[in-house]
Design goal:
5-stranded mixed barrel; about 170 residues; alpha+beta; two-stranded antiparallel ribbon; about 40% strand
């Protein structure tokens, strides 16, 4: 009990108040410590503009718009610039973002930013990504790679399939 009953009056229990004050002080110190750590790490999690992949082909893919019909249903809107490459050879350079664990990758996302950069920090937001299916497995690397494959545009619900894929791809 926080209050002791003495005759007809309720008086504060000094022992419980002391325990409460000590706990509050420890919690405040812990909170301050974690806030300082968080602020320190967040200051370093910015995009390095020199790592951003930039090419005419990424610009073509960046022109794809997404239309949300309902929360579980979205569709890609393809402009003429990307439609002319459908089912044709297409080359992209970028960074591997694995879908599954392992050093050998056959199906992964190719991104304009390296995986070790925070996608949700800085002004760039989430980078453009394309699903890549390799003809043969390649070794995972943090370095940029260049692949060439057949461009596939998925017309169905983008919640189930990525809007843009490179299939039967080869490492260049």
């Amino acid at each position: 009990m926080i209050f002791k009953k003495r005759s007809d009056h309720l008086l504060p229990n000094p022992h419980l108040f002391c325990i409460f004050a000590v706990r509050l002080r420890i919690e405040m110190r812990s909170l301050a410590f974690f806030l300082l750590i968080f602020i320190g790490f967040s200051a370093k999690a910015q995009h390095d503009p020199s790592d951003q992949m930039d090419s005419a082909n990424w610009d073509v893919i960046g022109g794809v718009k997404i239309k949300t019909v309902k929360p579980t249903e979205t569709y890609a809107i393809y402009n003429p610039a990307i439609q002319k490459y459908e089912s044709k050879a297409f080359e992209l350079s970028g960074y591997i973002v694995p879908i599954k664990d392992g050093m050998k990758q056959t199906k992964f996302m190719l991104s304009t930013l390296p995986i070790n950069q925070c996608f949700y920090c800085g002004k760039n937001g989430v980078p453009i990504m394309v699903l890549v299916e390799m003809a043969e497995p390649i070794k995972f690397t943090y370095q940029p790679i260049t692949v060439k494959g057949t461009l596939k545009l998925n017309k169905g619900n983008a919640m189930n399939n990525p809007p843009v894929e490179l299939i039967s791809s080869k490492l260049l």
